[in-house]
Specification:
The protein is α/β, with parallel strands linked by helices. The chain is built from 11 helices and 14 strands. The strands form 3 sheets. The chain has a 9-stranded mixed beta sheet with strand order 3-2-1-4-5-6-12-13-14. It is globular.
Length: 334
């Protein structure tokens, strides 16, 4: 079997549904045969590893450990799904304190055991804040940490394809920016349906304004809906899209969706935050630019940013993150 690289990929939280799915999918995608599964829950982790072994992936060298030092030493890539899961009735923000503490420790462990990490993807909620917390404590350059933001955009694509009765790939350039949560900014101006700009369809008999508003609300609450339907949070879609992010850094062939990234651009009013922007993934990591949109869309982006700032400042008040003015002394890359 041909793999993209031979570098070590570490899956954190590998005993869980997302983590075990990540391991299988990484091998199916042919990313690397060198995968380490980590989780503090030894019994569940051993069971997940046994299942992977029974898949009999050619040339795979999958290991498992409950020792974080062993897991991270020599790692080139990590994916962390290792926070507490979101349950029915919970928002992503309900997980803030406990998962921020996990993120802070992960950042410190990266600094200690794999300071030359090529890229880390953080996907446990609230991902914008946990990713930011990992970055600050890790000492890494901002380009080396990204968070999963694509699912909001893929939900928009899905909803529009279902509304218009077209193939999903015929709905193009769907974009949501800002926070990965119900305060996200949903952009209509970027999207097209079979080549027709979405803005030319909204307000017509093909997509009345009230139906567009319903779609927008559905996208903002898409994760909540899956929890209601399945009794647990998503695991297939976050696994797949996160691995496509990491694979884009491995092979340099690009990634089609927004990524959550560290943004500091005072000129545009965004300072010291992790949020989804228009991004590019290369072998150097993630880079970004401020998206283009209507005045209303850009205002929604500012509102989403403001929501994230409040969450960030809550984590600072908890003592899990230092004050922003001290970040550069913790991480010289910030």
């Amino acid at each position: 079997m041909s793999y993209v690289c031979q570098d070590k990929l570490v899956i954190l939280g590998a005993a869980g549904a997302i983590g075990s799915n990540l391991t299988q999918a990484a091998l199916t995608l042919g990313m690397t045969p060198n995968i380490c599964m980590y989780d503090p829950f030894e019994k569940g982790l051993k069971g997940a590893a046994e299942e992977i072994y029974h898949c009999a992936f050619p040339e795979a060298r999958v290991t498992w450990t409950t020792d974080i030092k062993e897991a991270l030493t020599g790692a080139s890539y990590i994916v962390s799904s290792g926070g507490a899961p979101r349950k029915e009735g919970m928002t992503r923000e309900d997980l803030l304190k406990g998962n921020a503490e996990i993120a802070a420790q992960l950042g410190k462990d990266i600094r200690a055991y794999c300071p030359d990490l090529k890229f880390g993807a953080v996907i446990f909620n609230p991902a914008d804040i946990t990713g930011l917390t990992v970055l600050v404590h890790s000492g890494l350059a901002p380009s080396k940490i990204g968070t999963l933001a694509a699912l909001d955009s893929t939900r928009l694509q899905t909803a529009l394809a279902q509304h218009f009765g077209v193939a999903q790939h015929e709905v193009t350039t769907c974009r949501t920016y800002g926070g990965h949560g119900e305060q996200m900014a949903v952009f209509a101006s970027t999207a097209s349906v079979k080549g027709t700009p979405l803005t030319d369809l909204i307000g017509t008999d093909k997509l009345p304004a009230d139906q567009w508003e319903a779609i927008r609300k559905h996208v903002q609450q898409g994760g909540k809906k899956i929890i209601e339907l399945r009794g647990r949070s998503s695991f297939q879609s976050p696994s797949h899209q996160t691995l496509l992010m990491v694979k884009a850094v491995m092979d340099g062939k690009g990634y089609d969706w927004p990524v959550g990234c560290y943004v500091h651009d005072p000129a545009h009013g965004f300072e010291h935050i992790m949020m989804a922007m228009e991004t590019t993934l290369t072998q150097a990591g993630v880079s970004w630019k401020v998206p283009t949109g209507t005045e209303s869309e850009l205002n929604d982006l500012k509102i989403s940013y403001g929501h994230l700032v409040k969450l960030r400042d809550e984590v600072i008040a908890m003592g899990i993150l230092p004050p922003v003015t001290e970040w550069s002394s913790v991480n010289s890359n910030l």
